[in-house]
Amino acid sequence: MSITLVKNIGRILSGNIEEPVLEGSCIVIKDGKIDKIGGEDICAGIEADQVIDAAGASVMPGLIDSHAHVTVGDYGHRQKTHDFIGSAMHGGVTTMISAGECHYPGRPKDPSGVKALAILAHKSFKNAPPSGVKVHAGSLILEKGLVEKDFEELAAEGVWTVGEVGLGSVKDPAEAAPMVAWAHKNGFKVMMHTGGTSIPGSSTVTAEMVIETEPDVVSHINGGPTAISLEEVDKIMDNTEFALEIVQCGNFKVADYVTKRAKEKGMLGRIIFGNDSPSGSGIMALGILRNIAYAACMSGVTGAEAVCMGSGNTARVYELNTSCIAPGKEADLVFLDAPMGSIADTAEEAFECGDLPGISIIMIDGVVKAAKSRNTPPAKRQAKVV
Questions:
Q1: Mean pLDDT calculated for residue range 369-378
Q2: The CATH number of domain 3-61+326-385 is 3.55.40.20
Q3: Of 40, 146, 153, 192, which residue is most buried, by most CB within 10 angstroms?
């Protein structure tokens, strides 16, 4: 059994929207999962294989990018960028969810081809996760001609997500809704493109179309990049329980409106954060951190609540056993603090004043993947392996 002790934690940001901050200064990790959380007494008498001194810094769950357009491997074809997944990991992202491999060169658009691409992407990322990041790829793009048996066959191969409805030839709810029902019957989670067009081939999607199709996730409710009207946003928020995804490359006014309205109506647990990259806006390695900072400094939520939108909320929607600091969860952890030179004293305060925290250690399944972020500013208090 492998045991890691984390001590001298200044603040534990849980990722759980019901309890965003936990009491305690110590975490015990066993075989890659969180075992205990509490005061320093829980570490007493334990012989650890590894000890991490948080040095008074905060710990939060590894972040989830709920909207990535990966292809195969750590290369973003749309922006011709190598190692963008590794760069995201240095921004605290330990899990990515593909919204569809739409940028794959020569992407097939027939039923056999889209199935083959989904299986290839799913298995290749599972077998070789870039920089250790848990990339849930192989999100099926809905094309005309798919039948219920196709979803059964894909599920048997481990594929479990449907990419943004609307990226493929199936756009109308009359065609999409039956396929979404087949997907749900076979255990899939379904995303749906929402708002204006983003790339050639995509289409404008209204609130009514989303409601009729019944996905699990309203992809980029703040547009990718063109958003629906605030009246359309209200329809989705008031008439559904779908997850509301805010993306970095979307409309800032709508992102602010959705967050404030969700806070007012007790819906913060529905908001999840994604990048939607590689996109025309480029690749934002610190995009999820920036989403958190924007929400915390502009939209009336606390830094700890905003962290939940980039971690535990998404894990709950996709039923992942990570990105929440609790016993039994996978030990995907990020050690962070206010950046040097900031007016803030803690990571939470940094988010709330609009600064990006400095990240030191990034762990995935209890294994240190980076001892210092290459992308964030240096932290005032830096965790270290002792």
A1: 95
A2: no
A3: 192
